[in-house]
Amino acid sequence: MTIRLTWQRVALALGALALAGMAFAWSGLFQIAASSGHWRVTDWFLHWVMRNSVKTYSSFQTPEEVTTDQGLVSAAGHFRQSCAVCHGAPGVRPSPVMQKATPHAPDLAINAREWTDRQIYWILEHGVKYTGMPAWGAKDRPDEVRRMVAFVRRLPTMTPAEYRALTEVAAGVDVAGVRPGVTAVCTGCHGNDGRGRGQPDIPVLGGQRADYLLASLERYASGDRASAVMQVAASQLTRAEMRALADHFAAMPGLQAGPLPRTHPLLTEGRHADQLPACAGCHAPDRAHPVIAGQRATYIADRLRNWRGDEKVVDARKPHATMPVIARRIPKEQIEPLASALAAADPGD
Ligand code: HEC
Ligand code: HEC
Ligand code: HEC
Questions:
Q1: So what's the pLDDT on residue 184?
Q2: Mean pLDDT score of the chain, rounded to an integer?
Q3: Which of 48, 120, 133, 152 most suits a substitution to test ligand 1, by most atoms within 8 Å of the C-beta?
Q4: What is the pLDDT of residue 314?
Q5: b/e 211-239 (16+ beta carbons within 10 angstroms → b)
Q6: Closest ligand to the CA of 141
Q7: Closest CA to 86 of 107, 112, 114
Q8: Is ligand 2 within 6 A of the CB of residue 71?
Q9: Is the pLDDT of residue 294 over 60?
């Protein structure tokens, strides 16, 4: 006797299967213990699904540029703060607790070779569901993700000494009122002299207004100012430590607090036709705005570009809405020359 395949029978069979599945889930027999690991076949299947998903989505959900050859220090420092606990790092073992997760985080010195830059970018930006691999900590910071792609790429050949050189600076300073060790986290990226270790993406803190540094730390910690790197660094500070560190770095030599140089017309005259006020109208010694002369050109240009992308902000009178509106009015081809003119009073490293 043969059973004829009809739609009704198929539907019935599927329904029975779903019910059996529900009954199994309800029974509590499904093994969710991380200690039991995965069967080999489950492990293979899950990785196959993940790999296909990453391949598909990374082909259209990534920007044109997914890596960079600049700014390894901030990526390495962020990796040390946020990733090494699960993945380990050159010369650093992952936390044994995190290695008891299923799946546990792979050694990227081995696994990074299996992925293209574009795929790593996608994984870092979005994270991986059901694995504990988190998404990037801040929205709209493709520049931060790019630097991390470059860092992950370097892991297979990075020695412990190279990793230490990227993440630590010798002979740290003590700042009164700040827990021991915390200041060393800051100087690992910002340097003992607050000049950012010559890195293109790390701003000069020396000579900056202390109130502005403090406000920035608060806004990073709350997520108001988007940076995964600085959010992690700032959220471990108490309010008193923020104050002490802001005062400490502001008191160092670095930025040029005097009137802006007359080396670019937008700095001191603005541009009437575009309703662009002179930068010097606000960034002046007697005004409570950040010091920008002597700041690193790449950092200035990146901030201006980042603000330009923020098109939701339309009312320049709102707090922190000023710069997005101003940045959009700067002619695109003037961003680099303007940033270079400001940086020309270079603190030198
Ligand atoms: C809570 C633990 C945890 C943290 C923190 C974490 N990861 Fe992961 N990560 C994982 C796990 C687990 C996987 C494996 C996902 C899989 O293969 O299914 C993974 C996968 C990856 C992969 C893909 C490699 C592969 O073959 O699966 C990269 C690249 C990666 N992580 C980088 C990072 C970076 C960079 C950070 C820090 C910003 C980070 N991870 C933070 C747990 C973590
Ligand atoms: C892993 C590297 C890293 C660490 C660690 C780090 N910073 Fe930063 N910091 C950066 C980068 C990169 C930026 C620029 C972020 C951006 O684009 O907004 C920055 C920006 C800042 C700013 C804003 C400056 C401005 O001109 O707007 C302050 C203030 C600051 N950091 C203070 C600190 C303090 C205090 C610590 C220690 C608790 C610290 N940072 C730790 C990399 C780091
Ligand atoms: C109406 C006042 C005003 C004018 C005009 C102005 N700015 Fe600003 N600027 C600000 C404020 C306020 C901030 C702090 C923004 C924040 O914290 O979100 C700032 C911040 C900045 C920063 C970031 C500094 C840092 O350390 O991260 C840069 C760079 C900058 N401005 C460049 C410019 C340039 C270039 C011009 C001229 C084209 C200009 N600004 C004109 C008010 C102004």
A1: 92
A2: 91
A3: 133
A4: 66
A5: eebbbbbbbbbeeebbbbbbbbbbeebee
A6: 2
A7: 107
A8: no
A9: yes
